[in-house]
Write a structure and sequence with these properties.
Strand order of the largest sheet: 1-6-7-5
InterPro entries: FPG_cat (IPR012319), FPG_N (IPR035937), H2TH_FPG (IPR015886), Nei2_N (IPR044090), Ribosomal_uS13-like_H2TH (IPR010979), Znf_DNA_glyclase/AP_lyase (IPR000214)
Protein name: DNA-(apurinic or apyrimidinic site) lyase
EC number: 4.2.99.18
CATH topology of the largest domain: Helicase, Ruva Protein, domain 3
Family: Belongs to the FPG family.
Keywords: DNA damage, DNA repair, DNA-binding, Glycosidase, Hydrolase, Lyase, Metal-binding, Multifunctional enzyme, Zinc, Zinc-finger
Number of domains: 2
Radius of gyration: 20 Å
Amino acid sequence: MPEGDTVWQTARRLHGALAGRVLTRSDLRVPRFATADLTGRGVLDVTPRGKHLLTRVEGGLTLHSHLRMEGAWHVYAPGVHWRGGPTHQIRAILGNTEAVAVGYRLPVLALIRTADEPDVVGHLGPDLLGPDWDAVEAARRLTADPARPLGEALLDQRNLAGIGNVYKCELAFLAAASPWLPVGELGPDVPARLVATAHRLLEANKDRPDRRTTTTRSVRGGGLYVYGRGGRPCLRCGAPVRKDESGDRITYWCPGCQQGPLPQSPPS
């Protein structure tokens, strides 16, 4: 599931394959930009911003993409068979003499002026993996609406950019708070600790492309504390981890370790 660390890894792969090289192939398979041709332009850089990817090319243009739930960019050497999915799922192809980047199932793909990047990412809060990370501002935004449930506030990219459903569940567990607890009911020091933990975890996991982990080395069977562990024993207290499927995303939590309200619908 693409989250801030996954997007950061994707940007690093794309930057390594494309930056500093001239495009010899360009194919944007979305109706609005199907006739756009970037061949002959050099790629300047590929920059992640929260869950957004900004591929900047010469001439003041930026290819803006967002992975959301299903999107992915794959990088291949010339002549290698593409394995990212069927051809009809390809939304973008960018290639040079040494590599080709293929974007599959991209729900957002737009060619914009680089000067207009604030129009698509300017609303984002402090980027957990960005050079402008501001923990104080992130904590302020997270608690700006005291009545808002913690899980919703964590997922709102306007508060802090880079958290997805996995980290939402894991951070709520690490804060010992129910995902439905209003942020105004968190202890006075909890928001600052929460955003610091989020920053630490994404920094640690951005170099672990094969296995995201939020547990400490001392936790047996570690990896993740609650996400994906519905019905299995909590790694801390042994109580069954619960899951709620009433919203757009499944939420996992441990009722033994996390204090606060339960979801309105009966959890499984």
